[in-house]
Specification:
With 441 residues, this protein is α/β, with parallel strands linked by helices. 40% of the residues lie in helices and 22% in strands. Helix 3 packs parallel to helix 4. The two termini are 25 Å apart.
């Protein structure tokens, strides 16, 4: 019972801390401009560009996207994106160095090859992209073309993330995402032939009609294509909040025990194939950047998930994009129309944010180490932030319960999640979330 309770707990994913729920309009465009101006001129930054368009809606998807069969809305949006890039670069130090760029969505590769090349060239004119920069793009194999593969190569893209979810045709029909193994393999082959040698796959368990057997078969088919890393997520069914999920029949969803079996079966299959467990939900080959970062204690957690990117600054472009700059977090207007209106008026589209305190930074560091390493040296982290570890440990009321349940070991302030309870690391991290504790009281 304890295992099920901790596995099914509804908690933040702790990609960032504090979470977006704590953002407010008290931090807006003026604060963002000030934080950009105060960025260290020589510190490398990461860039995230959000392109929220798809050709069809996957019924499980919880991301805000625009479904379009036409290119005009995408072209108009890209014009706003370029204007935002220009606005941000005017406030930031000149020629700010950049080590990582990520195009997310939606489906960024729905923009035409010419448009993609123009956008990356525009970025290079406004930021100093390192020759060794990681440039990553999210891809839907169903719409990926040879022309786009050539454009990615010309733009210097070296990492691609492909949505797979499940190769079971029954599951695919139930989630409105029909994608054959052949389509996926063809996309992988095109990418590798055009110099994109780092490939990521996304898999999902807990989908309608999914079974342990179909999860294993999907995983084996994915492994045969030898992606460098895989993200394995559990489907979260919240139709009251995500309308398109109402098209999924709840009776077809596996229960808690079945979901746990599916998750475990996927992990066993991947480990047997030579992949290493990374944090909560990632797997990587031993020579992948994530595995190397984990081995050397450099694994990080940011708004995109697990990362080997150690930049302190992440600048987000596009509707709903989140950034971490200087004193805290900022988020753009969520809706595309509102975002475009702000940019068209010549102002940053920041809608809300959060100004970090020193206590927030210490708690964020503890949570990040737990999510990345399954352990945290609370006294050492507190010392680095000038904080008292007793305050953090005493306020983490859930820790005693977790220790009693055999989830964690605690010795002189060092907190370690037992390996067999890796799935419960969010529960452990939540013990250091001051905002959850405040709500609970």
């Amino acid at each position: 019972m304890q295992t099920t309770k901790h596995r099914e707990a509804r908690l933040p994913w702790y990609t960032i801390y504090p979470t977006v729920a704590e953002f407010s309009g008290a931090v807006g465009a003026d604060a963002y401009e000030e934080w950009l101006r105060n960025l260290p001129a020589n510190d490398p930054a990461s860039l995230y560009l959000h392109v929220p368009f798809c050709r069809s809606k996957c019924w499980y998807c919880g991301f805000p996207t625009t479904i379009t069969r036409h290119d005009a809305p995408i072209v108009n949006y890209l014009a706003a994106l370029r204007d935002e890039i220009r606005l941000v670069s005017e406030h930031a130090p000149q020629a700010l160095p950049v080590s990582d760029v990520h195009f997310g969505g939606g489906t960024p590769t729905l923009m035409g090859p010419v448009e993609f090349l123009a956008l990356t060239e525009f970025l290079r004119r406004h930021f100093a992209l390192a020759e060794t920069a990681t440039i990553a793009v999210e891809i839907d194999p169903r719409t990926f073309t040879a022309d786009m593969a050539e454009a990615l190569q010309a733009a210097g893209v070296n990492r691609a993330s492909l949505g797979v979810q499940s190769f079971d045709p029954i599951v695919q029909k139930a989630i409105n995402r029909v994608q054959s193994e052949a389509q996926t393999a063809a996309a992988v082959e095109m990418l590798r032939r055009h110099g994109v040698t780092s490939i990521n796959f996304d898999l999902i368990f807990g989908l309608p009609h999914q079974t342990v057997q179909s999860c294993v078969e999907t995983t084996r088919a994915a492994v045969a294509m030898r992606p460098n890393r895989l993200a394995v997520f559990g489907y979260s069914h919240i139709p009251s909040f995500i309308k398109n999920q109402r098209l999924i029949q709840e009776a077809s969803l596996p229960g808690s025990a079945a979901r746990a079996e599916q998750d475990a079966a996927i992990a066993v299959t991947l480990i047997a194939a030579g992949y290493r467990e990374i944090g909560l939900d990632h797997f990587a080959l031993p020579d992948d950047d994530l595995a190397l970062a984990q081995k050397t204690g450099r694994l990080r957690r940011n708004s995109l998930g697990y990362s080997a990117d150690t930049c302190k600054t992440l600048i987000g472009f596009g509707a709903s994009a989140i950034g971490r700059v200087g004193e805290g977090y900022v988020q753009n207007e969520v809706t595309r129309d509102s975002y475009c209106r702000h940019i068209a008026a010549g102002r940053l589209a920041t809608s809300k944010g959060y100004r970090l305190t020193e206590e927030d930074r210490a708690r964020a560091a503890i949570i990040e180490r737990l999510m990345c390493d399954l352990e945290a040296d609370v006294p050492a982290i507190c010392a680095a932030h000038g904080s008292d570890p007793i305050h953090f440990l005493d306020s983490a009321e859930r820790l005693a319960m977790l220790a009693k349940d055999g989830i964690v070991d605690i010795e002189k302030g060092f907190v370690r999640v037992r390996r067999q309870h890796r799935f419960a690391m969010r529960v452990v991290a939540a013990a250091f979330d001051a905002f959850l504790d405040r709500v609970a009281r």
